[in-house]
Amino acid sequence: MFASICRRRLLGTHQILGGGGSGSGGGTDPLRIILGTTPFAHTYSSSAVADVPNSEPCPATVSYLISCGLSPACAAVTATTKKIRILSTDKADAVRALLRDYGFDDDDIVRTVRSAPTILLVDPERVILPKIQFFASLGFEPRKLATAPFLLTRSLDEHLVPSIQFLRGIIGSEDDLRLGFSRAPRALLADVEKNMRPIVEALRRCGFTEAAISELLVTQMGVLLTSPDRISEVFEQLKAMGMCISDPRFMHCFREMCRLKKDAWLRKLALYQSFGLSEGEVLQAFKAQPTILQLGNKNMKKKVRFLLDELKLGISNIIAHPEILCYGLNECILPRCAVLSVLMKEGKIQGGIKLAEALLVDSSVFSERYVLSHADDVPDVVKAYEGEIKFEGFRHDR
User: Fold this and answer.
1) Of 141, 129, 64, nearest to 97 (Cα)?
2) Mean pLDDT across the stretch 240-261?
3) What pTM value is reported for the model?
4) Among 39, 43, 31, 34, CA closest to 7
Protein backbone atom coordinates (compact mmCIF):
# COMPACT_ATOMS: atom_id res chain seq x y z
CA MET A 1 0.00 0.00 0.00
CA PHE A 2 2.77 2.48 0.96
CA ALA A 3 4.70 1.76 -2.24
CA SER A 4 1.53 2.22 -4.28
CA ILE A 5 0.84 5.60 -2.68
CA CYS A 6 4.41 6.73 -3.35
CA ARG A 7 4.16 5.69 -7.00
CA ARG A 8 0.90 7.62 -7.46
CA ARG A 9 2.37 10.66 -5.71
CA LEU A 10 5.54 10.61 -7.80
CA LEU A 11 3.51 10.16 -11.01
CA GLY A 12 1.33 13.16 -10.10
CA THR A 13 4.40 15.31 -9.40
CA HIS A 14 5.96 14.16 -12.67
CA GLN A 15 2.89 15.23 -14.63
CA ILE A 16 2.62 18.60 -12.87
CA LEU A 17 6.24 19.45 -13.63
CA GLY A 18 5.92 18.67 -17.30
CA GLY A 19 7.20 15.09 -17.39
CA GLY A 20 5.78 12.63 -19.81
CA GLY A 21 7.40 9.26 -19.75
CA SER A 22 10.14 8.20 -22.12
CA GLY A 23 9.05 10.65 -24.76
CA SER A 24 9.54 13.75 -22.64
CA GLY A 25 13.20 14.07 -23.52
CA GLY A 26 15.78 16.27 -21.82
CA GLY A 27 17.73 15.73 -18.60
CA THR A 28 16.59 15.09 -15.07
CA ASP A 29 14.60 17.90 -13.50
CA PRO A 30 15.95 18.68 -10.00
CA LEU A 31 12.41 19.50 -8.91
CA ARG A 32 11.42 15.96 -9.79
CA ILE A 33 14.42 14.51 -8.01
CA ILE A 34 13.88 16.27 -4.72
CA LEU A 35 10.14 15.64 -4.65
CA GLY A 36 10.59 12.05 -5.66
CA THR A 37 13.25 11.26 -3.07
CA THR A 38 11.37 12.86 -0.15
CA PRO A 39 7.78 11.79 -0.87
CA PHE A 40 6.11 13.19 2.23
CA ALA A 41 8.54 15.71 3.79
CA HIS A 42 7.51 18.50 1.45
CA THR A 43 3.99 18.70 2.84
CA TYR A 44 5.10 20.29 6.11
CA SER A 45 4.73 24.06 6.33
CA SER A 46 4.81 26.87 8.87
CA SER A 47 1.13 26.32 9.59
CA ALA A 48 2.10 23.24 11.58
CA VAL A 49 4.20 25.34 13.95
CA ALA A 50 2.48 27.24 16.74
CA ASP A 51 4.32 29.76 18.87
CA VAL A 52 3.36 30.18 22.50
CA PRO A 53 1.66 33.45 23.45
CA ASN A 54 3.22 35.13 26.45
CA SER A 55 3.24 38.78 27.48
CA GLU A 56 6.58 38.52 29.25
CA PRO A 57 9.79 37.18 27.66
CA CYS A 58 10.81 33.76 28.92
CA PRO A 59 14.26 34.10 30.58
CA ALA A 60 15.38 30.75 29.19
CA THR A 61 14.29 31.79 25.69
CA VAL A 62 16.09 35.12 25.96
CA SER A 63 19.22 33.33 27.17
CA TYR A 64 19.07 30.91 24.25
CA LEU A 65 18.60 33.70 21.71
CA ILE A 66 21.66 35.42 23.16
CA SER A 67 23.59 32.18 22.65
CA CYS A 68 22.56 32.40 18.98
CA GLY A 69 24.36 35.74 18.70
CA LEU A 70 21.59 38.24 19.38
CA SER A 71 22.31 41.10 21.75
CA PRO A 72 20.52 40.92 25.14
CA ALA A 73 18.20 43.78 24.16
CA CYS A 74 17.42 42.27 20.76
CA ALA A 75 16.87 38.84 22.32
CA ALA A 76 14.37 40.26 24.83
CA VAL A 77 12.49 42.19 22.16
CA THR A 78 12.45 39.19 19.83
CA ALA A 79 11.17 36.83 22.51
CA THR A 80 8.43 39.31 23.44
CA THR A 81 7.26 40.52 20.04
CA LYS A 82 7.42 37.09 18.42
CA LYS A 83 5.81 35.53 21.52
CA ILE A 84 7.91 32.39 21.49
CA ARG A 85 9.19 30.09 24.21
CA ILE A 86 11.96 27.64 23.47
CA LEU A 87 11.10 24.62 25.57
CA SER A 88 13.42 22.18 23.81
CA THR A 89 16.96 23.38 23.31
CA ASP A 90 17.74 20.02 21.72
CA LYS A 91 15.44 20.81 18.79
CA ALA A 92 16.73 24.39 18.52
CA ASP A 93 20.32 23.14 18.61
CA ALA A 94 19.48 20.65 15.85
CA VAL A 95 18.06 23.46 13.71
CA ARG A 96 21.23 25.51 14.09
CA ALA A 97 23.43 22.48 13.40
CA LEU A 98 21.50 21.72 10.21
CA LEU A 99 21.82 25.30 8.99
CA ARG A 100 25.56 25.23 9.67
CA ASP A 101 25.88 21.96 7.78
CA TYR A 102 24.55 23.80 4.73
CA GLY A 103 26.89 26.76 4.95
CA PHE A 104 25.17 29.23 7.29
CA ASP A 105 27.81 31.19 9.21
CA ASP A 106 27.37 33.05 12.52
CA ASP A 107 25.99 36.17 10.85
CA ASP A 108 23.53 34.09 8.83
CA ILE A 109 22.31 32.36 11.98
CA VAL A 110 21.80 35.73 13.72
CA ARG A 111 19.93 37.11 10.70
CA THR A 112 17.74 34.02 10.52
CA VAL A 113 16.90 33.85 14.21
CA ARG A 114 16.27 37.59 14.50
CA SER A 115 13.73 37.67 11.68
CA ALA A 116 12.21 34.19 12.06
CA PRO A 117 12.87 32.86 15.59
CA THR A 118 10.00 30.37 15.29
CA ILE A 119 12.23 28.38 12.97
CA LEU A 120 13.95 27.15 16.15
CA LEU A 121 10.70 25.43 17.15
CA VAL A 122 10.22 23.23 14.09
CA ASP A 123 11.44 19.71 13.39
CA PRO A 124 14.60 20.30 11.34
CA GLU A 125 14.52 16.95 9.54
CA ARG A 126 10.86 17.06 8.56
CA VAL A 127 10.38 20.78 7.92
CA ILE A 128 13.69 22.48 7.11
CA LEU A 129 15.85 19.83 5.48
CA PRO A 130 13.53 19.10 2.51
CA LYS A 131 13.47 22.81 1.61
CA ILE A 132 17.23 23.19 1.87
CA GLN A 133 17.72 20.10 -0.29
CA PHE A 134 15.19 21.47 -2.75
CA PHE A 135 17.01 24.78 -3.15
CA ALA A 136 20.41 23.07 -3.24
CA SER A 137 19.19 20.75 -6.01
CA LEU A 138 18.39 23.81 -8.10
CA GLY A 139 21.87 25.22 -7.59
CA PHE A 140 20.74 27.89 -5.14
CA GLU A 141 23.16 28.65 -2.31
CA PRO A 142 21.25 27.63 0.86
CA ARG A 143 22.80 30.33 3.05
CA LYS A 144 21.14 32.97 0.87
CA LEU A 145 17.94 31.91 2.61
CA ALA A 146 19.13 33.73 5.73
CA THR A 147 17.60 36.86 4.20
CA ALA A 148 14.25 35.11 3.76
CA PRO A 149 14.20 32.30 6.33
CA PHE A 150 10.43 31.88 6.23
CA LEU A 151 10.95 30.11 2.90
CA LEU A 152 12.28 27.19 4.93
CA THR A 153 8.83 26.62 6.40
CA ARG A 154 6.78 27.15 3.24
CA SER A 155 5.09 24.16 1.65
CA LEU A 156 6.97 22.65 -1.25
CA ASP A 157 3.86 21.36 -3.04
CA GLU A 158 1.68 24.39 -2.49
CA HIS A 159 4.17 27.23 -2.71
CA LEU A 160 7.82 26.67 -3.58
CA VAL A 161 7.48 24.28 -6.51
CA PRO A 162 4.73 26.31 -8.24
CA SER A 163 6.77 29.49 -7.71
CA ILE A 164 9.91 28.05 -9.27
CA GLN A 165 7.96 26.55 -12.15
CA PHE A 166 6.25 29.88 -12.86
CA LEU A 167 9.52 31.84 -12.74
CA ARG A 168 11.25 29.26 -14.90
CA GLY A 169 8.58 29.76 -17.55
CA ILE A 170 9.11 33.55 -17.52
CA ILE A 171 12.89 33.74 -17.12
CA GLY A 172 13.82 30.68 -19.17
CA SER A 173 17.49 30.25 -18.29
CA GLU A 174 18.36 28.21 -15.22
CA ASP A 175 21.44 30.36 -14.67
CA ASP A 176 19.36 33.54 -14.81
CA LEU A 177 16.81 32.00 -12.45
CA ARG A 178 19.57 31.29 -9.93
CA LEU A 179 20.99 34.78 -10.38
CA GLY A 180 17.63 36.45 -9.85
CA PHE A 181 16.95 34.39 -6.73
CA SER A 182 20.38 35.10 -5.25
CA ARG A 183 19.74 38.84 -5.59
CA ALA A 184 16.31 38.77 -3.92
CA PRO A 185 15.48 35.47 -2.18
CA ARG A 186 12.52 37.07 -0.43
CA ALA A 187 10.79 37.40 -3.82
CA LEU A 188 9.86 33.73 -3.50
CA LEU A 189 7.61 34.66 -0.59
CA ALA A 190 5.22 36.00 -3.24
CA ASP A 191 2.29 33.76 -4.14
CA VAL A 192 2.00 32.71 -7.78
CA GLU A 193 -1.70 33.50 -8.23
CA LYS A 194 -2.00 36.44 -5.83
CA ASN A 195 1.25 38.21 -6.68
CA MET A 196 3.48 36.81 -9.42
CA ARG A 197 0.98 36.28 -12.23
CA PRO A 198 -0.85 39.62 -11.69
CA ILE A 199 2.48 41.48 -11.70
CA VAL A 200 3.61 39.83 -14.94
CA GLU A 201 0.24 40.59 -16.54
CA ALA A 202 0.52 44.23 -15.44
CA LEU A 203 3.97 44.47 -17.02
CA ARG A 204 2.61 43.05 -20.26
CA ARG A 205 -0.23 45.58 -20.27
CA CYS A 206 2.35 48.36 -19.89
CA GLY A 207 4.06 47.14 -23.06
CA PHE A 208 7.02 45.21 -21.66
CA THR A 209 8.20 42.47 -23.97
CA GLU A 210 8.75 38.95 -22.65
CA ALA A 211 12.51 39.53 -22.88
CA ALA A 212 12.19 42.77 -20.89
CA ILE A 213 10.09 41.07 -18.21
CA SER A 214 12.68 38.31 -17.93
CA GLU A 215 15.47 40.89 -17.59
CA LEU A 216 13.52 42.79 -14.94
CA LEU A 217 12.95 39.67 -12.84
CA VAL A 218 16.61 38.66 -13.07
CA THR A 219 17.86 42.09 -12.00
CA GLN A 220 15.07 42.94 -9.52
CA MET A 221 12.93 39.92 -8.68
CA GLY A 222 11.66 41.84 -5.68
CA VAL A 223 9.26 43.62 -8.06
CA LEU A 224 7.04 40.55 -7.56
CA LEU A 225 6.32 41.80 -4.03
CA THR A 226 4.81 45.06 -5.22
CA SER A 227 1.28 45.48 -6.60
CA PRO A 228 -0.12 45.69 -10.14
CA ASP A 229 -1.43 49.16 -9.31
CA ARG A 230 2.06 50.32 -8.32
CA ILE A 231 3.43 48.88 -11.57
CA SER A 232 0.96 50.94 -13.59
CA GLU A 233 1.58 54.02 -11.44
CA VAL A 234 5.36 53.87 -11.95
CA PHE A 235 4.90 53.37 -15.67
CA GLU A 236 2.68 56.46 -15.92
CA GLN A 237 5.09 58.54 -13.78
CA LEU A 238 7.98 57.73 -16.09
CA LYS A 239 5.87 58.62 -19.11
CA ALA A 240 5.08 61.95 -17.43
CA MET A 241 8.83 62.52 -17.08
CA GLY A 242 9.13 62.23 -20.84
CA MET A 243 10.52 58.71 -20.87
CA CYS A 244 9.26 55.99 -23.18
CA ILE A 245 9.71 52.27 -22.80
CA SER A 246 12.22 52.18 -25.68
CA ASP A 247 14.55 54.58 -23.81
CA PRO A 248 17.64 52.61 -22.68
CA ARG A 249 17.32 54.30 -19.28
CA PHE A 250 13.68 53.31 -18.82
CA MET A 251 14.26 49.85 -17.36
CA HIS A 252 16.80 51.11 -14.84
CA CYS A 253 14.51 53.93 -13.71
CA PHE A 254 11.49 51.62 -13.58
CA ARG A 255 13.36 49.10 -11.45
CA GLU A 256 14.52 51.72 -8.94
CA MET A 257 11.12 53.37 -8.65
CA CYS A 258 9.47 50.01 -7.97
CA ARG A 259 11.73 49.61 -4.94
CA LEU A 260 9.97 52.56 -3.30
CA LYS A 261 6.39 53.02 -2.24
CA LYS A 262 4.74 56.19 -3.49
CA ASP A 263 5.00 58.05 -0.18
CA ALA A 264 8.69 57.13 0.15
CA TRP A 265 9.29 58.37 -3.40
CA LEU A 266 7.67 61.72 -2.58
CA ARG A 267 9.73 62.08 0.61
CA LYS A 268 12.93 61.47 -1.36
CA LEU A 269 11.99 64.16 -3.86
CA ALA A 270 11.21 66.59 -1.04
CA LEU A 271 14.54 65.89 0.64
CA TYR A 272 16.51 66.79 -2.48
CA GLN A 273 14.36 69.84 -3.03
CA SER A 274 15.20 70.98 0.51
CA PHE A 275 18.70 71.79 -0.79
CA GLY A 276 17.25 74.34 -3.19
CA LEU A 277 16.67 72.11 -6.22
CA SER A 278 13.53 72.20 -8.31
CA GLU A 279 11.51 69.05 -8.86
CA GLY A 280 12.57 69.12 -12.50
CA GLU A 281 16.26 69.19 -11.55
CA VAL A 282 15.82 66.24 -9.19
CA LEU A 283 13.94 64.20 -11.79
CA GLN A 284 16.58 65.01 -14.41
CA ALA A 285 19.28 63.77 -12.03
CA PHE A 286 17.21 60.66 -11.28
CA LYS A 287 16.95 59.83 -14.98
CA ALA A 288 20.73 60.16 -15.28
CA GLN A 289 21.51 58.21 -12.08
CA PRO A 290 18.40 56.35 -10.81
CA THR A 291 20.13 54.91 -7.75
CA ILE A 292 20.35 58.34 -6.07
CA LEU A 293 16.88 57.80 -4.65
CA GLN A 294 17.98 54.57 -2.98
CA LEU A 295 20.49 56.35 -0.74
CA GLY A 296 19.62 56.48 2.94
CA ASN A 297 18.50 59.94 3.99
CA LYS A 298 21.23 60.34 6.61
CA ASN A 299 23.91 59.12 4.22
CA MET A 300 22.74 61.37 1.41
CA LYS A 301 22.51 64.48 3.60
CA LYS A 302 26.00 63.84 4.98
CA LYS A 303 27.46 63.62 1.47
CA VAL A 304 25.67 66.68 0.19
CA ARG A 305 26.69 68.74 3.21
CA PHE A 306 30.33 67.64 2.75
CA LEU A 307 30.32 68.54 -0.94
CA LEU A 308 28.68 71.89 -0.22
CA ASP A 309 30.52 72.93 2.93
CA GLU A 310 33.95 71.34 2.61
CA LEU A 311 34.51 71.20 -1.14
CA LYS A 312 32.50 74.37 -1.85
CA LEU A 313 30.72 72.75 -4.77
CA GLY A 314 27.45 74.37 -5.75
CA ILE A 315 24.28 72.32 -5.54
CA SER A 316 23.79 72.74 -9.28
CA ASN A 317 27.27 71.34 -9.84
CA ILE A 318 26.54 68.38 -7.59
CA ILE A 319 23.21 67.54 -9.22
CA ALA A 320 24.80 67.88 -12.65
CA HIS A 321 27.03 64.94 -11.61
CA PRO A 322 24.56 62.85 -9.55
CA GLU A 323 26.77 59.78 -9.67
CA ILE A 324 29.06 61.43 -7.13
CA LEU A 325 26.36 60.85 -4.51
CA CYS A 326 26.67 57.10 -5.07
CA TYR A 327 30.38 57.10 -4.21
CA GLY A 328 31.30 56.08 -0.69
CA LEU A 329 32.33 59.10 1.39
CA ASN A 330 34.88 57.32 3.58
CA GLU A 331 35.87 54.68 1.06
CA CYS A 332 36.31 56.86 -2.02
CA ILE A 333 35.67 60.61 -1.79
CA LEU A 334 37.75 61.41 1.31
CA PRO A 335 40.87 59.46 0.22
CA ARG A 336 40.73 61.13 -3.19
CA CYS A 337 40.35 64.54 -1.59
CA ALA A 338 43.34 63.77 0.64
CA VAL A 339 45.45 62.92 -2.42
CA LEU A 340 44.42 66.09 -4.25
CA SER A 341 45.13 68.16 -1.13
CA VAL A 342 48.66 66.74 -0.86
CA LEU A 343 49.32 67.46 -4.54
CA MET A 344 48.02 71.03 -4.18
CA LYS A 345 50.33 71.66 -1.22
CA GLU A 346 53.27 70.42 -3.23
CA GLY A 347 52.30 72.54 -6.23
CA LYS A 348 51.79 69.51 -8.47
CA ILE A 349 48.26 70.54 -9.41
CA GLN A 350 46.50 73.88 -9.36
CA GLY A 351 43.91 74.87 -6.77
CA GLY A 352 41.50 75.68 -9.57
CA ILE A 353 41.16 72.03 -10.57
CA LYS A 354 37.60 70.95 -11.31
CA LEU A 355 37.00 68.82 -8.25
CA ALA A 356 33.83 67.10 -9.43
CA GLU A 357 35.49 65.82 -12.57
CA ALA A 358 38.63 64.75 -10.68
CA LEU A 359 36.63 62.86 -8.09
CA LEU A 360 34.46 61.07 -10.65
CA VAL A 361 37.09 59.47 -12.84
CA ASP A 362 37.46 55.70 -12.79
CA SER A 363 39.54 54.37 -9.89
CA SER A 364 42.27 53.06 -12.21
CA VAL A 365 42.46 56.44 -13.96
CA PHE A 366 42.58 58.34 -10.65
CA SER A 367 45.28 56.03 -9.31
CA GLU A 368 47.41 56.43 -12.42
CA ARG A 369 46.87 60.17 -12.88
CA TYR A 370 47.12 61.39 -9.29
CA VAL A 371 48.88 58.69 -7.27
CA LEU A 372 51.29 56.52 -9.25
CA SER A 373 52.56 59.33 -11.47
CA HIS A 374 53.54 61.36 -8.37
CA ALA A 375 54.52 58.57 -5.96
CA ASP A 376 58.28 58.98 -6.45
CA ASP A 377 58.31 62.76 -6.01
CA VAL A 378 55.53 62.95 -3.41
CA PRO A 379 55.40 59.72 -1.38
CA ASP A 380 52.63 61.14 0.78
CA VAL A 381 50.12 60.67 -2.04
CA VAL A 382 50.30 56.92 -1.47
CA LYS A 383 49.73 57.37 2.27
CA ALA A 384 46.83 59.70 1.56
CA TYR A 385 45.25 57.26 -0.89
CA GLU A 386 45.55 54.45 1.63
CA GLY A 387 43.97 56.54 4.37
CA GLU A 388 47.09 57.15 6.46
CA ILE A 389 46.90 60.88 5.81
CA LYS A 390 43.45 62.28 6.46
CA PHE A 391 41.77 64.99 4.44
CA GLU A 392 41.58 68.23 6.41
CA GLY A 393 40.17 70.51 3.76
CA PHE A 394 41.56 72.64 0.95
CA ARG A 395 41.59 75.85 2.96
CA HIS A 396 45.42 76.06 2.96
CA ASP A 397 45.72 75.34 -0.72
CA ARG A 398 43.13 77.39 -2.53
Assistant:
1) 129
2) 91
3) 0.74
4) 39
